Inverse folding.
């Protein structure tokens, strides 16, 4: 990338930002080469000595060249962006970017990024409501759906301040904002300010290690639950992502920890788009139930798959338990434990919505939370059954391994016992004595002595094998000791 300072007829000169600011630093690009942008879409974020501002696009077109690198200082009059038709857009900064149209084309899906195993927490001793800042987090994706009996409106928000226009308007009875990715502190603060969320709620959203719970703040309900997810593919270890829900008067906010292409809320969106009267004609508390029900039901296919794998391992354990099977069994037990940690407190949280009377939850909707409570009980039963079966398979493997070891030791003991008298006889006849004395060992000079000793040894071994068989120590069908 190069920074062109020479004038050009098609260039839009970078104007003087004013207030004695001679230049601006390019923080990051909001577009990439080959991307199509609309007029007034943000091209980049620029930092001056006064503030951080966005550079809007002067026209609609496809990006061909980005003339500056991130971190580079751009001066007025420098070429900034070239479109494919040859026109050059200069960097034009403004303190307040214009509001884009309410309905815009949804951005392309963001690929799944592996999340760190360790959760980010604020430093010990931080004041309450501290939001952790994750500079490596991907940008948050905000999707808004406003609906009512008369229709729906769906769009992707680029600026959290647009949420205020929907919340203050009486056009739509229910407004639902879904935020994918909670690592952007500025976005969380802007959304919380627009919806009137407490600072402690925002801290719980950002700190994605919360236990499922329900908190009533008077003007809104704050719900935390966890949903199963496999980051990177079906063969990866099972994890749970935190989902935070906020129910207010006429709106629902959902914050999902993982920024991913699909989620468990897709069916809820389809029901809203297809004009389902069961959801379009009800208030925001029913939408809260629908989202919680979708997240809870996501456990059932997972548990069915884990149960099928346990059945296969049980059949394999009856035949032979190799190290690979043991590792897979250990992984399944850990996955059942992961689900149990998420589902056990979830039952208590759903029970609060089912039993307690709350201002924002109507009596007609509270009945539906009973269904969610039943599902959580079923999930816990399936988890406990799977854990007991996995523990039983592990104990059966240890018992079978101990039994095989005992069988091996028994065979080795029998062989050793048989050879004890044979070794005794061979040891005696292996000693060197004077063969001329009459008190010395017999059969030393007899021509059939060797064959006779071998026969005696074979006879002794045969008698011992017979006695072992008769006592049931060799064959399972052998007779046991008689009293």
């Amino acid at each position: 990338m190069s920074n062109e300072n020479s004038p050009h007829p098609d260039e839009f000169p970078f104007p003087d930002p004013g207030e004695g600011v001679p230049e601006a630093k390019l923080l990051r690009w909001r577009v990439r080469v080959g991307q199509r942008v609309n007029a007034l879409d943000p091209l980049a974020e620029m930092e001056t000595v006064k503030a951080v501002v966005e550079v809007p696009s002067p026209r609609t077109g496809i990006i061909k060249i980005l003339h500056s690198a991130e971190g580079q200082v751009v001066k007025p009059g420098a070429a900034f962006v070239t479109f494919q038709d040859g026109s050059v857009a200069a960097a034009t900064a403004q303190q307040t970017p214009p509001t884009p149209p309410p309905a815009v084309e949804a951005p392309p899906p963001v690929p799944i990024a592996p999340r760190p195993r360790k959760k980010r927490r604020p430093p010990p001793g931080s004041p309450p409501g501290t939001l952790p800042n994750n500079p490596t987090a991907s940008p948050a994706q905000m999707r808004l759906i406003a609906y009512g009996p008369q229709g729906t409106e769906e769009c992707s928000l680029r600026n959290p301040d647009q949420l205020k226009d929907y919340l203050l308007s009486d056009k739509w009875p229910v407004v639902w904002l879904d935020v994918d990715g909670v690592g952007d502190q500025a976005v969380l603060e802007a959304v919380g300010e627009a919806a009137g969320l407490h600072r402690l709620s925002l801290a719980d959203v950002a700190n994605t290690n919360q236990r499922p719970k329900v908190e009533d703040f008077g003007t809104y309900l704050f719900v935390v639950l966890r949903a199963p997810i496999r980051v990177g593919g079906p063969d990866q270890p099972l994890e749970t992502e935190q989902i935070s829900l906020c129910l207010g008067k006429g709106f629902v906010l959902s914050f999902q920890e993982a920024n991913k292409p699909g989620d468990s809320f897709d069916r809820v969106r389809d029901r809203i788009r297809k004009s389902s009267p069961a959801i379009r004609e009800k208030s925001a508390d029913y939408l809260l139930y629908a989202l919680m029900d979708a997240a809870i039901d996501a456990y059932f296919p997972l548990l069915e798959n884990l149960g099928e794998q346990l059945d296969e391992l049980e059949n394999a354990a009856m035949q032979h338990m190799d190290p690979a099977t043991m590792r897979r069994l250990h992984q399944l037990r850990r996955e059942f434990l992961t689900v149990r940690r998420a589902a056990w407190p979830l039952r208590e949280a759903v029970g609060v919505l089912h039993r307690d009377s709350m201002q924002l939850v109507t009596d007609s909707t509270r009945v539906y939370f009973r269904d969610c409570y039943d599902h959580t009980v079923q999930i816990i039963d399936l988890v406990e059954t799977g854990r007991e079966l996995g523990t039983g398979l592990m104990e059966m493997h240890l018992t079978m391994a101990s039994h095989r070891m005992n069988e091996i030791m028994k065979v080795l003991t029998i062989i050793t016992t048989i050879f004890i008298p044979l070794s005794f006889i061979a040891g005696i006849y292996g000693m060197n004595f004077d063969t001329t004395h009459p008190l010395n060992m017999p059969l030393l000079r007899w021509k059939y002595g060797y064959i006779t000793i071998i026969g005696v040894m074979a006879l002794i071994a045969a008698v011992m094998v017979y006695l072992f068989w008769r006592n049931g120590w060799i064959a399972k069908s052998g007779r046991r000791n008689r009293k």
